[in-house]
Amino acid sequence: MSDTKPTLTLMIAAPRGFCAGVDRAIVIVEKSIEKYGAPVYVRHEIVHNKYVVESLKAKGAVFVEELDEVPDGVPVIFSAHGVPKIVPATADARGLEWLDATCPLVSKVHRQVERLVDQGKHILFIGHAGHPEVIGTFGQVPDGNMTLVETVEDVAKLPDLDGTTLGFLTQTTLSVDDTAAVIGALKARFPDITGPRGDDICYATSNRQDAVKAICQSVERLIVIGAPNSSNSLRLAEVGERMGVPAQLVQRAREIDFDWLGDATRVGLTAGASAPEILVREIVTALRERFNVVEEEVTTATENMVFKLPRELAD
After folding, report:
1. Does 122 have pLDDT greater than 90?
2. pLDDT at 171 over 70
3. Dihedrals φ, ψ of 82, to 5°?
4. What average pLDDT is seen over the chain?
5. Residues 73-112 pLDDT 10s
6. Residue 54 annotated in active site
7. Of 2, 12, 141, 268, whose CB neighbour count within 10 A is largest?
8. What are the residues whose beta carbons fall under 8 Å from the beta carbon of 86, sequence distance 6 or more?
9. How far is CA 178 from CA 81, 123, 165, 171, 184, in A?
10. Catalytic residue among 30, 114, 133, 296
11. In CATH, which of 3.40.1160.10, 3.40.1010.20, 1.10.260.40, 3.40.50.300 is domain 2-18+203-299?
12. CATH number listed for the domain at residues 106-200
């Protein structure tokens, strides 16, 4: 029966899936449930992945959007995206025990924000409006110290900032190419602006984009596993589209549009930094039901980053 199926070469990107920051955040929730017992509350989705969130709910995690939804006397965890300073301050005022699952690379940006503002600089922050990481980063310093810039066009629209000492920083999950263009525009308009040596895009985001660029040189379609609110997953689909490869973002195998695959014989597959490997295998299994799948893994980098757990949970 299998020889009646068309052959599909599936080029699987590596690195893909969980990064060290996501891995750490999930372990923080699991170990907190072990230590304190259920329920443990989590402010905002710990990472932007429905499968992960539902799995943690089944273990005893309760996800809320704001602290006022957390009852007294139970621990609360802050998501990997980071939170404004007012959030832990409010938790302290209520006597809540809290753990911070903010990715250490996001925390590093928070410290850079404070340092630049202490130096008297106004920060032009490259990021996506409304994303929890951006909200958390803006919340590290008093209002008025930062201006959000999303695009090269935004740079042109900025007011005249003569006499203002400027610095720039970036969200960690942006498009590498877009961000380079925005930084270039900032430096052209404000030659004295200071910033990090390159940008703050995390190693996992850039590695996953590089891997997609590698497979998109020889595929006709790209499947990206990730949530529609996952910044780094959306960027992976964008990378494919820009290389002329139609991309589809799916959360689970059941969302694959097989008509969209058409007669493609070479398909790329990757997963955003908050998507577990089990979902990659689920997609491969679904494709095997319709095709003779030949898997080829394309590796562009090896990742061995590990982040320490908070002191409260360190064994």
Report:
1. yes
2. yes
3. 90, 155
4. 95
5. 999 999 999 999 999 999 999 999 999 999 999 999 999 9
6. no
7. 268
8. 139
9. 21, 19, 24, 12, 10
10. 133
11. 3.40.1010.20
12. 3.40.1010.20
